[in-house]
Amino acid sequence: MKIGFHDCNLPEGKAKYDDSRMNQLVEKCNPKKVSPYYVEFMRDEFGKSEAIAISRSSLLDLLVEDIEKCERQLENSESEEQKELFGRCIAHLETEAPLCDLPILSEPEKETLRSMSVLSLKPVIVLNTETPVTEVIERCLDKAGIVFFYTVGPKEVHAWPTGKDSDIVTCAGRIHTDLAKGFIKGDIASFDDFMKCHNWNDCQKKGLVKVVDRDYTIKPGDIIEIRFAL
Question: Could you confirm whether domain 2-19+37-127 is CATH 3.40.1350?
Fold first, then answer.
């Protein structure tokens, strides 16, 4: 994730997400390779970012730009449907709230706003004081609806980001496209259950690993293995 920031005391460049689940899994498995999650902080680069962190005192400057874009579209639009959308957006922005907090935006409406390069439709978090980097990352991930699942073993422990409510096939594809194409079943253990066991085999012997079909919805912290056929 790329996080654009302004008027905040944050480090520029890549930063590792200090994920407490990941840290515990690494300590438990002692793998040869560790693949944590990284974000990139970019000062004043909102256009290229996937999320925005901004101070309360500078938020209005960001919102005013979006108000002006919506006002121009409202003036030029001949569609009553789009006029209603832009009017709704302007009214919301004038409450000093970003568009990402505007409820009941349909996907076509979001696409319209994205085509206008409306910035506050991206996940926006407001920082009032000095905020630890880990907290900033967690708030951006939460606002973006991103959760993590994990693959574990003596060779590697890997943190995988995915959208909230993703199905297991989508998660398999995050690991490798072949796993999604040849998906048969998924083996799932919750983070808490796995941490109670010595290793994955022990977790299976204790009946704490469940076999799931392609409609399974991932839960934050799930440990997964994919059964697939090439």
Answer: no
